[in-house]
Write a structure and sequence with these properties.
heterodimer, A: 469 residues, alpha/beta, TIM Barrel, 2 domains, eight-stranded parallel beta barrel, B: mainly alpha, Non-ribosomal Peptide Synthetase Peptidyl Carrier Protein, Chain A, 4 helices
């Protein structure tokens, strides 16, 4: 015998009737990605006490995107050529705009090619992204940074016992910390700002090693000019980080940031989040970093990086716009240029990948195509035509119907507004598509090339008028 | 000239591959005469061609049965100055 539990409702909700639709345009401003708005502070219980964070501060804080396409990104693929990196850097500058939303990128410094790449990128004369280095935590490597004329470099300061004892073979945590601090001193002596990468942070002993180490770094930083003071990169090396409220350390991103920012006193502008996607959390974890007090989110283009990859740069860009409520000088069309360029280099971007996959705003379903024809906003996330140069598309299959065919034909001929033709006028093409599946037992979708041949044959007058053949 | 009803009957029979004599005014194009999605589009396109008229897509596709189609097409022909 089963029993059901009924819950007593606590509130009733009368219908708010209307004859005019409420399209929630103050949030869903089609010219921008949907805006992210917060009603008030977030409370997290830390060490038994409630702590408030105000996510609305992202609107006024100088949050930025940083990039590691040429470093972490290159660890996951064959090396880029120098020309490729210079072109990608140039497009990143265009993307981030005059305000430098894409604030920094980092380069290896070990080979002649590394150095030439850096020199040619800087020769383009862009203020942003600023070029920084990436070196091992070895004193001698600062010579490379100095010779390259760089003002800031990342260096590995692994923070978990997995790394300290099993990878780096230190005898003790103290020996490890002392070794790292010697290298930081070397950075100061070389006049270079060190960016300490706390590798494997989300698996480290936070109270026992990480916070004492960062305390010491902050003490060292107080002895040098502000422009040299240590930056901290929080490295979620294995993708273990968790954004959920109430999660425990060392995986809790809010708690990690709080401890570094408030307890160790690292200002938000010197905190940077770096993550990986092993548990599908990479983008949200990066954005969470922003919300809780890391001003920088470290990314790679299209998420390509070590193993499962990094926070995707283009995802961070749209998240930035949604949080700020403004384009802030960003040129989102550069995202499509970058995707096309990298695809031409053989980078395998899946068709269903957000913002840049070939099918990211494509529908096969006739009922969705019908909705698109009525009002593009019904099944398109934002004005992808203006923001990305990609109008919503249909992928023609047996499910597309005449609505799908009409969208395809109008897009093919570049017909917009009152010039668009109705689905009645494409009936011959719609019949051809239907017969492909019902009479010819076709199993594959219909390519653009096939459709062009069919439209030329079945709609010759329209074809001649708009394609000039 | 054949009446509007006769011409609508001929087009319907041809497009839906049914016997024109069997079509009744109350017959629903989809449920009684078996019109599938693309055939509904083809019917409207063929009516337009037959009568030399332009029909509003939403209105035309909203006409559900044979009798209503005859009335609707008659109205449109009159509005557009087509002699029937």
């Amino acid at each position: 015998m089963t029993t059901t539990t009924t819950t007593t409702p606590t509130k009733t909700h009368p219908l708010v009737d209307t004859t005019e639709p409420n399209l929630l345009e103050d949030t869903f401003d089609y010219d921008l990605p949907p805006l992210i708005k917060f009603e008030g502070p977030i409370t997290e219980v830390i060490d038994g006490k409630p702590v408030e964070f105000d996510p609305r501060s992202v609107k006024t804080r100088d949050i930025v995107v940083t990039d590691t396409t040429f470093r972490d990104g290159q660890q996951a693929r064959p090396p880029y050529t120098i020309d490729q990196m210079v072109h990608i850097y140039d497009l990143m500058a265009k993307l981030g705009g005059p305000n430098g939303v894409v604030r920094q990128t980092e380069f290896f410094l070990y080979t002649k090619n590394d150095r030439e790449t850096l020199d040619r990128c800087r020769a383009l004369g862009h203020k942003y992204p600023q070029c920084t280095g990436w070196i091992r935590a070895v004193k001698g490597d600062f010579r490379l940074v100095k010779e390259a004329g760089l003002q800031e470099t990342g260096m590995l300061t692994s923070s978990s016992d997995y790394h300290i004892f099993h990878k780096l073979k230190f005898k003790s945590r103290k020996a490890c910390m002392d070794s790292y601090c010697e290298v930081v001193d070397a950075a100061f002596e070389a006049g270079v700002r060190p960016r300490c990468h706390l590798e494997d942070l989300t698996r480290a002993d936070i109270e026992g090693f990480v916070l004492p180490f960062v305390d010491r770094l902050m003490e060292m930083s107080r002895q040098v000019p502000d422009e040299l003071s240590v930056k901290i990169r929080l490295c979620d090396t294995m993708g273990f980080g968790i954004s959920y409220p109430g999660a425990e350390l060392p995986r809790s991103i809010p708690k990690l940031i709080y401890k570094l920012n408030k307890e160790c006193g690292v200002p938000t502008e010197r905190l940077e989040w770096h993550g990986h996607n092993d548990f599908h959390k990479v983008h949200i974890n990066g954005a969470t970093g922003w919300l809780y007090g890391c001003d920088a989110c470290n990314t790679t283009l299209f998420g390509f990086g070590e193993r499962t990859g990094n926070p995707p740069l283009e995802g961070a860009i749209f998240e930035y716009i949604a949080l700020k409520g403004d384009l802030c000088g960003i040129d989102t069309s550069a995202i499509t240029e970058l995707a096309d360029y990298m695809r031409s280099m053989g980078l395998p971007i899946p068709d269903n990948y957000p913002f840049v996959g070939k099918a990211f705003n494509s529908t096969s379903a006739g009922i969705h195509a019908g909705g698109l024809r009525q009002d593009e906003r019904i099944y398109n996330i934002m004005d992808t035509t203006t923001l990305l140069g990609k109008p919503p598309r249909v992928s023609l299959t047996d499910k597309s119907g005449a609505d799908g065919v009409a969208i395809w034909v109008n897009e093919f001929f570049g017909l917009t507004g009152d010039d668009k033709i109705s689905k009645i006028k494409v009936h011959k093409v719609a019949r051809w598509v239907t017969d492909q599946y019902e009479k010819e037992s076709r199993l594959t979708s219909i390519s653009d090339a096939e459709m062009e041949v069919v439209v030329k044959e079945l709609m010759p007058d329209l074809y001649a008028k708009h394609k000039g053949d | 000239m054949a009446s509007v009803e006769d011409r609508v009957r001929q087009v319907t029979a041809r497009v839906l591959n049914v016997s024109g004599n069997d079509i009744k005014p109350a017959d629903n194009f989809a449920m009684d005469l078996g019109a599938e999605s693309v055939q509904a589009i083809e019917l409207v396109a063929n009516f337009e061609e037959e009568f030399g008229i332009e029909m509003d897509e939403e209105e035309a596709l909203g006409v559900e049965n044979f009798g209503s189609a005859v009335e609707y097409i008659t109205k449109v022909c009159k509005e557009q100055g087509i002699v029937t």
